[in-house]
Predict the structure.
Amino acid sequence: MDKYLYFPIEVGTRELLSRFLTACIAAEQGFKVLIGYQYTLLEHAPILPIGIYFSKGTNAVSLKNLEMVKAQGHAVVVCEEENFFRGLRDNPIVITHDNIFDVCDLYLAVSPDEKNYLISRFGASIPVVCCGNARSDILRPDFRAIFDQEVKNIRSLFGNHILINTNFGILNNGMPNNSPQKIFETWLKIGVFASQLSLDQKTQVFKDYMRFEKSNMDFITQLLVRLAAEDCSVLIRPHPVEEASTWESQVRSLNKENISVVSDGNHIPAILASKLIVHTACTTGVEALLLGAPTLCLGTLQNSPAESYHMARQFNDVAYSVDEAERLILEHLAGGQSLVKNRNHYISRLPNSLSSWEPEPLAAEMISKQFFKLHESYNFVDTASQPAARKLQIIQESEAYKAESYMQKKFGLEKDFFTNHLQHFQTALKRFETTNVSQISDSVFMISNYEK
């Protein structure tokens, strides 16, 4: 029996490269791994060969989809990408659905903190193991050469610049007709609020997040005015979910050539190319720490519950005023060490929040071992009315993917992405010489080993 894994992708720039690394390692263990746009893989679950479906989400929408996947005979493994360096204890945004373990055969936790949180919530008998997240693998020194050319290109365009990463998915959402009210309704629908909260309490939590975003947007706006007057280059990189034109308009209003907006490409080379990373409690602050990049977190609402749930500020120096931020930035650009001297202290805090940082094995390695172990022990039962009809075939692309340019931008990949990065993996790890990439549809690719 061939062994199949299915890796649905939501945000290409966030999880695609780490999933590809995991797929390459799983292919060494004999798996055929289909990696692609989440709804294209989901729609074909009833006809694809039974295997292990790896979900990046655990909310109500994910639960409903996984119930269908499970009913088609597939095993289900989950992780929660949104829990990557997010405070979980006493957080009113829980994301993981109360019934996720009704369909989940294995939960891959990013850290001891996440595992302990899940056990405290669901009980000690749940199938959960700590594997880390392969997103952190890509940040290790061995892999940084992957981004050398992109880093060189960015530096040639912007010189020694400051990178400001924004993350305002509520107030500056780039999805068509996605107002804050619609986002709140979506949050209610997918069940991200703690179930014991009343509607009024959920409303207040959401309003707190809006206040948090508004204060941070104002902070960055004021900081940009200050930096526009300085002799430094500033690059603004909006989150993939944001509307980039908002920031482009703001930059035009400043009428200063030293400030630019770039919304395309992977965030890792953008971090590596910069002189300093500035952010508002974004996960990129932790990724910058792991990449060895100097980082400054902007903090505005010190008493805001929303700010306390973002763990990035526990791993970065924080400026709580525009004056302080401007001073720290200019001191750093002048050669000051205040934003780098605490790096070892922050790194020492990692073990409870991330299971797979150096010198531990790659998270992708540990995750692949769990897939192999589950496949060996799982009792697959093909529930299809015609099991013989299940076979790997050319997949018809999801209508949602074909119709939405926004979705294509979020996902955004071509076969060249895989072939180029496979070469980088081969160089970095001295393995994967027999790994093959084949295209199944516009958004779905298969990773396997050549037949011997």
